[in-house]
Amino acid sequence: MSLVSSTSPRLRRAAALLAVAGSVLAAPAFAQKSSESSAMPAAKRHGALEYSCGGIGIDESTAMRAAMKDHPLSLLFAASGGAYEADVQVAIQPEGANAGQPMRFTANGPICLVNLPAGKYAVEASAAGQTKRQSVTVGMGAKSLDFRF
Asked: Mean pLDDT for the chain?
């Protein structure tokens, strides 16, 4: 038998009101957490590569920048003057013993969060009539490559 069931109706009502108040107060925190995760674009998969590109709009950009530390590789695309670039053609080519076919995708936003196996990669990005290439080794902490066109 619980304490509430062995007490007066008045105490049971007070306990019920406290329970309702607690759930109402907890709701905004849950809603905020779910809205943060909904600000992230959906991840896509290409073989061993998983990526999510976006960053259009302040909520999505803020959420993606906060998540950069949780991904082995982040790619940032901007014009030389600093304006963000989208619709960037990306090719990620494994180097060394893991060399194989490049993994290609179109970045539909200025920020891409990339999950891929540890190793050395050549990353090529093409936009605004230019192609830029950088090398990176992933597997020891989060890395970020900045491409300016």
From this structure: 80
Structure token digits, residue 23:
């759930």
Whole-prediction pTM: 0.72
Overall average pLDDT of the 114-120 stretch: 94
At 95, the amino acid letter reads: E
Rg (CA), the chain: 23
Give the model confidence (pLDDT) of 121-145 as tens digits.
999 999 989 999 999 999 989 999 9
Distance CA 48, CA 5 (A): 57
Separation between Cα atoms, residue 108 and residue 23, nearest integer Å: 39
- Given a contact cutoff of 8 angstroms between Cβ atoms, the answer to whether 37 and 59 are in contact is no
119 near 94, Cβ under 8 Å?
yes
| DSSP-derived secondary structure letter, 17 | H
As a whole number of angstroms, the distance between CA 12 and CA 81 comes to: 65
Strands (E), 9-108: 44-46, 49-54, 73-78, 88-94, 103-107
